[in-house]
Specification:
Pfam families: Sigma70_r2 (PF04542), Sigma70_r4_2 (PF08281). The chain has 200 residues and is an all-alpha fold. The protein contains eight helices and no strands. Helix 3 packs across helix 4 and helix 4 runs parallel beside helix 8.
């Protein structure tokens, strides 16, 4: 009997919660910050949980949750109780924002991959031209020993380490533009040494 009574109490509380949230939303829509704070406290646990289930990343989930409540604050005057409960309305915003973040992160990762691949190719197309006929590692090492050390270091990281120019810049602390300049100059010297070796 106690269990049935408690269940009945919970059921009775549902309309009360809907009414309370609707009242807080109406009050917040009028610009009352205290009402919005109360609305935030009531909604944030459930909205954050929903967002985090989609993103699986606490940092992104926290950021998106703040974006959601900013949108709720801005759009509060547009809410209409007859169109649905406050929680459903807010959850729709949260879901859309979370999905947008997933797409944004995926697009950013793809852009980073594409940019890295382009830099990798840029680093290597000179290497391919100059070294296609000189795949003997010892020969290349010998040729590298005859060019300036700062150039040889970068070419070694790119050719033997498989690193992009941006990765080399990040690891060495050398500006990306300087890395590109040194690698171009180094490749020219390396080409000359390798071609000289082949002619002999």
């Amino acid at each position: 009997m106690t269990s049935a009574y408690q269940e009945a109490q919970k059921t009775a509380q549902i309309p009360q919660e809907y009414q309370r949230l609707a009242a807080l939303m109406e009050c917040a829509a009028a610009g009352n910050e205290h009402c919005f704070e109360a609305l935030y406290d009531a909604l944030v646990p459930r909205l954050y949980a929903l967002i985090n289930r989609i993103l699986h990343n606490r940092t992104h989930a926290e950021e998106v949750t703040q974006e959601v409540f900013l949108e709720i604050w801005q759009k509060a005057p547009l809410y209409r109780a007859e169109r649905g409960a406050v929680l459903s309305w807010a959850a729709t915003i949260a879901h859309r924002r979370a999905v947008d973040r997933v797409r944004s992160v995926a697009a950013s990762a793809e852009r980073d991959f594409t940019r890295g691949l382009e830099e990798y190719r840029e680093s290597y197309h000179h290497v391919d031209d100059a070294l296609a006929a000189f795949m003997d590692t010892e020969e290349v090492h010998h040729a590298l020993s005859g060019i300036p050390r700062e150039q040889a270091q970068l070419l070694t990281m790119a050719y033997f380490g498989g690193k992009s120019q941006r990765e080399i810049s990040d690891e060495t602390g050398i500006p990306l533009g300087t890395v590109k300049t040194r690698m171009r100059a180094g490749m020219q010297k390396l080409r000359e040494r390798l071609e000289g070796t082949r002619e002999r």
